[in-house]
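User: For a teaching handout, I'd like to show students what a predicted protein-ligand complex looks like in token form. I'll give you the sequence and the SMILES for pyridoxal-5'-phosphate. Please answer with just the structure.
Assistant: Understood, here is the input followed by the structure.
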Amino acid sequence: MLYLSTRGHADRKRFCEILLEGLAPDGGLYLPEQYPQLDAAALTRLRQVWSSQGYASLAFEILSLYIDDIPAADLKALCDKTYTRAVFGTDEIVPLKPLQAAGASAPELYLEALSNGPTLAFKDMAMQLLGNLFEYELARRGEELNILGATSGDTGSAAEYAMRGKKGVRVFMTSPNGRMSPFQQAQMFSLLDANIHNIAIDGVFDDCQDIVKAVSNDLDFKRRYKIGTVNSINWARLLAQVVYYFAGYFQATQTNEQKVSFTVPSGNFGNVCAGHVARMMGLPIDRLVVATNENDVLDEFFRTGVYRVRGTADTHETSSPSMDISKASNFERFVFDLIGRDGARTKQLFGEGLARTGHFDLSGDACFAQAATRYGFASGKSTHANRLDTIRQVFAQYGAMIDTHTADGVKVAREHLKVGVPMLVLETALPIKFAATLVEALGREPNRPAQFEGIEALPKRVQVMPADVSVVKAYIVTHCD
Ligand SMILES: *Cc1c(COP(=O)(O)O)cnc(C)c1O
């Protein structure tokens, strides 16, 4: 399997070459040259693998279709080491929870639990695999990598929990000092592993991002100190996410004739893009419903055909903060497919076009209608008031507590239910991470998994620094060996 860039660059690369890279040289995103096609027999076989051998074996089967430069036995061992009950809490790894009223003949919908990993958010599903893949590939090459990132919450802690103790990898994670929830701060800063460096910047999230950009743009420094990233455009992360669409499908259905729909709480379009890949491979998905919060860049596109990047002033801070985006960094992958894999046009739309005007408009293009008809996409939007209502309703109707992002998903899923087509809402975080909004909705603290009792009181390891690139660089230099 070879990978191409969405912007038409002529180079083709193999999986391990793009594993440690970010963007393609032309600024595009990597995608496989074609999506492997699963016929009825192949789907039946995957269902059997899943039911008899479990999630890790299913992951191996799907990853093998895209990775041919890691020996099969090694890849299997990496999957087996990643997807365990010890890390994800259950043997199912991503169990389905039906929301079904007493006396009803079928569930209203299902929650697919993706948030039982170490940081209680779905990013663990991919990041845990990435940690093991990085360690494996760096050892094979005899190289080291220093991951530099900026986080306002979920991504940073998922990356740190995935990379802690890994050989050849260090993490330097910046976050805005004092601006994450006490639970999130405790989760990150209580990691005492020598290869994990928490850097609290006196500033806001944008200051952290600017520092990361400035360091990455200093090509000499980047090369000399082997700076890399783990952001959501990484193809390996997206690929790992494809697996749980299959696992959800097999749990919700008896036969491969049955279709299901998924609703995905979305920000950067990484999670739902994995659903798109699963559907392109032949998984019988009816609708892929994109749920946004007040930052409705994606809902606007699927309603109107206009993709409009928001400025800082139009990017809202919401109570589902992991979906607070001004642009959706993985969206280019889908648009590339939508416009018939035309690299030159993708480059024009996302390169010059967005840089000049901040938007593009596909409403007049015949392909736009296909987003719904051929690719199954639908969308909707949820606000703070919707979120509170939905959290209350789901608790009253089903006794289930859901987090704010999952609530956005349930709210929008309810607008797209179809008789005879099970709806799976991806549960992307647990409520304890967003306790303040849960208290606002329900008047009580959310349940806390036992292993997180008292984490706020644990010793913390964090360096506070001014929003100054040279100070951060100096810290990296002195902690690189
Ligand atoms: C990251 C995140 C999302 C958004 O996922 P994308 O892949 O960026 O669309 C939704 N919910 C939670 C809890 C997250 O951490």
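For the handout, you might add this sentence: Residues 121, 123, 154, 232, 265-271, 322-323, 405, 428-429 surround pyridoxal-5'-phosphate (CB under 6 Å).
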